[in-house]
Automatic annotation (TrEMBL):
Pfam families, sorted: 2OG-FeII_Oxy_2
Cofactor note: Binds 1 Fe(2+) ion per subunit.
Record has Cell cycle as a keyword: no
Organism in which the protein naturally occurs: Kitasatospora phosalacinea
Descriptive protein name: Alkylated DNA repair protein
Upper taxonomic lineage: Bacteria, Bacillati, Actinomycetota, Actinomycetes, Kitasatosporales
Coiled-coil regions, chain positions: none
Residues the record lists as binding Fe cation: 131, 133, 187
Keyword Iron assigned: yes
């Protein structure tokens, strides 16, 4: 949807860039369709169990490598034991184009080879606490794509989960990249704004977020 008030691209911190409306509706539809496929198997989407017994409010499915707190494996021992779906080359290519766009540098995507993606689905009540993406053994950037309902995305500092942080709204089609000095910044999703998405993406309700990463793990 075209914003009534234009949303400019913004660098929140060195290496952390928000590009509103990067994906068109057709690309979002294709991503939603791909995510629907991955959500159905070989490892179905589920609420990740936490070591202390709770469950995450978001539902997650992974491709390439399976993430569970706090490691990556090829098979989903905490779900059904199956090997996760492969990470497709078209998604890696999209990741390289995302870096070129975010960093406004034609060379920014060279050599970027993401090998895992976490796909999170948020219903209207789901949130994600402040955390670092630090189970990867690589400092390569994280590329984040959002579809569906707008959320408040909180992007903080690399020291702790508290202030200073900046809240930005991530809407459908938005790109967010965090790399370089911001790669290990704390971030989270304090709230989703139900009913703000465009059903033309194929997502009638809720929010989909896909983050691609480089695990740095061998083959
Ligand atoms: C994440 O931190 O893994 C997800 C962030 C988001 O949903 O925007
Ligand atoms: Mn994260």
């Amino acid at each position: 949807m075209t914003a009534l008030i234009p949303r400019p691209r913004m660098q929140l911190a060195p290496g952390a860039v928000h590009v509103p409306g990067w994906l068109g509706v057709e690309q979002q539809r294709e991503l939603v369709a791909a995510c629907r496929g991955w959500a159905s198997g070989p490892v179905p989407i589920r609420h990740t169990r936490l070591p202390r017994g709770g469950v995450m409010s978001v539902q997650t499915v992974c491709i390439g490598w399976h993430w569970q707190p706090y490691r990556y494996t090829r098979t989903a021992g905490d779900v059904n034991g199956s090997r996760v779906a492969p990470f497709p080359e078209w998604l890696a290519e999209l990741g390289r184009r995302a870096l070129v766009e975010a960093y406004e540098d034609p060379a920014a995507g060279v050599g970027y080879a993401p090998d895992t993606a976490l796909i999170n689905f948020y219903d209207g009540r789901a949130t994600m606490g402040m955390h670092q993406d630090k189970d990867e053994r690589s400092g390569a950037p994280v590329v984040s794509l959002s579809i569906g309902d707008t959320c408040v995305f909180r992007f903080g500092n690399t020291e702790n989960r508290n202030r200073p942080y900046t809240d930005v709204e991530l809407a459908s089609g938005d790109l967010f990249v965090f790399g370089g000095p911001s790669r290990f910044a704390y971030h989270g999703v304090p709230r989703v704004l139900p009913g703000t998405g465009d059903p033309a993406t194929g997502l009638a309700s809720g929010r989909l977020n896909l983050t691609m990463r480089v695990t740095g793990l061998p083959g």
